């Protein structure tokens, strides 16, 4: 960001800002966002997009594993509890088949630079599952030298054998789910996990050569307060992670029914959530972590912090990333892929996904084809999300649009500028450092699809609170 550090703080108190701008907005891991996907993009569309990928294109891949040993009440992921080995084994076998289906439509063995296993709990997979899936991926793609192979881990279901498997299969980055270490919070969200067992897993991963470690924390959970959040962050720092993601809990029980089991009267209000987020940022800054985008932090020497400083950070469905491959291929139920032509999402229900792959069909449920204007707006929103700054004239020039295209948006920004959530000099729009938690509110000004959907269905709930 060029000048935001010299900007004044927001001009209104936090309570007024939250009342005025705390409405639900997307997390902007894509643009257009997933609620605007439609069945008009189907398996045939996806097949044609895959076939059109240039033979020298770099790609990345995401593998979704929708199983957990138990369900955490805060979870918003597409997952289910697996009581036995049977469904996980069957799912792994079908993943190999899906990889083969995709391979048939690709122009050749493309070079893969990033691979991410998410969930759910990917380590529900057995040793032979990992071997089969990684084997299929290596047959389909040429893994680039130094390719990042990352996995999300629940430390509660890890052991030495699983760590050895991950090391043997080439994983080199792991994200450890923590959320919160306070016993009262853990009881309320149904996730009991000590700092000691998390430390043991981190130590085992490093000893096995998986040295790039991320941590996931959350604020806004039931029974959290500033003191308990501080204790969790300080304990997490003892694990010495390279990156820390700090997500605000999204309470959406109308979408995730199990969240209704969380007592709403125990949830922090909007002001308390904001105070918790600011506290975390302050503690991490004091320990040398650099803020990255809206909710990530990294050591200054980490590639993510370097990308942020250089203005080349990216954002996709896994959040902030150093992955700038133009093609992201998703495997597994509900997985989302991104190609130059648009986005595709697999069938979210595991049985339907199984059935489609078994029938030899790409298991696409929906997607969206990008227009030139979508690409322009995606660029603007991504730069705001990553850099807290965007030059609108430069963006328009890059995408073949006239200067002044965003005149309506500049007008719509005026109230936010008046309240100190954004400022503008010429065609450059920036979010002041003190207003970082409100970045998504500024992005929403450029989201014409959100504006249209609100006008059409003002009561429909699609997103979580802005802060």
Automatic annotation (TrEMBL):
Keywords on record: 4Fe-4S, Cytoplasm, Iron, Iron-sulfur, Metal-binding, Oxidoreductase, Porphyrin biosynthesis, S-adenosyl-L-methionine
Any Pfam family matching the protein: Radical_SAM
Gene Ontology, cellular component aspect: cytoplasm
Chief place of localization: cytoplasm
Note on cofactor: Binds 1 [4Fe-4S] cluster. The cluster is coordinated with 3 cysteines and an exchangeable S-adenosyl-L-methionine.
Localization annotation: Cytoplasm
Family of the protein in this entry: Belongs to the anaerobic coproporphyrinogen-III oxidase family.
The name this protein goes by in its record: Coproporphyrinogen-III oxidase
Gene: hemN
């Amino acid at each position: 960001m060029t000048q935001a550090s010299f900007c004044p703080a927001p001009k209104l108190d936090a309570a007024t800002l939250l009342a005025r701008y705390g409405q639900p907005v997307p997390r902007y891991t894509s643009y257009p966002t997933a609620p605007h996907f439609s069945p008009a993009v189907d398996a045939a569309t996806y097949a044609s997009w895959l076939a059109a990928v240039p033979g020298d294109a770099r790609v990345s891949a995401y593998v979704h594993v929708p199983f957990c040993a138990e369900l955490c009440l805060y979870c918003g992921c597409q997952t289910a509890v697996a009581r036995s080995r049977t469904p996980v084994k069957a799912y792994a076998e079908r993943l190999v088949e899906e990889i083969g289906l995709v391979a048939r439509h690709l122009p050749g063995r493309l070079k893969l630079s990033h691979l991410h296993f998410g969930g759910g709990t990917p380590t529900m997979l057995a040793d032979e599952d990992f071997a089969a899936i990684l084997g299929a991926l290596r047959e389909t793609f040429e893994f680039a030298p130094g390719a990042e192979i990352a996995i999300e881990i629940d430390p509660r279901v890890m052991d030495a054998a699983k760590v050895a498997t991950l090391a043997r299969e080439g994983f080199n980055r792991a994200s450890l789910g923590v959320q919160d270490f306070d016993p009262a919070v853990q009881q309320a969200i149904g996730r009991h996990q000590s700092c000691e067992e998390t430390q043991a897993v981190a130590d085992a991963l490093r000893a096995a050569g998986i040295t790039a470690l991320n941590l996931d924390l959350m604020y806004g959970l039931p029974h959290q307060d500033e003191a308990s959040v501080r204790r969790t962050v300080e304990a997490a720092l003892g694990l010495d992670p390279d990156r820390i993601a700090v997500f605000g809990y999204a309470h959406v029980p109308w979408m995730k029914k199990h969240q209704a089991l969380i007592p709403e009267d125990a949830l922090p209000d909007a002001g308390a959530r904001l105070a918790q987020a600011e506290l975390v940022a302050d503690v991490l800054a004091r320990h040398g972590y650099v803020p990255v985008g809206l909710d990530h932090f990294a050591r200054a020497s980490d590639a993510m912090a370097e990308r942020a400083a250089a203005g080349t950070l990216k954002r996709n469905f896994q959040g902030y990333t150093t992955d700038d491959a133009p093609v992201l291929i998703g495997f597994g139920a509900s997985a989302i892929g991104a190609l130059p032509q648009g986005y595709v999402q697999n069938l979210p229900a595991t049985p339907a996904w199984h059935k489609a792959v078994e029938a030899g069909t790409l298991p696409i449920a929906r997607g969206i084809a990008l227009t030139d204007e979508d690409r322009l707006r995606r660029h603007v929103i991504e730069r705001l999300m990553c850099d807290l700054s965007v030059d609108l004239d430069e963006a328009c020039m890059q995408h073949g649009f006239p200067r002044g295209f965003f005149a309506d948006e500049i007008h719509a920004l005026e109230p936010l500028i008046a309240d100190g959530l954004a400022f503008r000099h010429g065609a450059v729009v920036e979010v002041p450092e003190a207003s970082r938690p409100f970045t998504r509110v500024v992005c929403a000004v450029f989201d014409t699809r959100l504006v249209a959907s609100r006008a059409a269905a003002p009561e429909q709930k699609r997103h979580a609170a802005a802060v």
